[in-house]
Amino acid sequence: MVEAIRAGQRLLTPTELEQALREAGFARYHIHHPFHRLMNAGDLTLGQMQAWALNRYCYQATIPKKDALILARSEDPEFRREWRKRIIDHDGEENGEKDGGIRRWLKLAEGLGLDRDMVTARRKALPATRYAVGAYLDLVTQGSLLTAVASSLTELFSPVAIGERVPAMLARYDYITEETLSYFTPRLHQAPRDAEHALALVTRWADTPEKQAEAVEALLAKCDLLWAMLDALHHAYVSPGQIPPGAFRPKDHRT
Ligand SMILES: O=C(O)c1cc(C(=O)O)c2c(n1)C(=O)C(=O)c1cc(C(=O)O)[nH]c1-2
Question: Which reactions is this enzyme annotated as catalysing (predicted)?
Answer without folding.
Answer: 6-(2-amino-2-carboxyethyl)-7,8-dioxo-1,2,3,4,7,8-hexahydroquinoline-2,4-dicarboxylate + 3 O2 = pyrroloquinoline quinone + 2 H2O2 + 2 H2O + H(+)
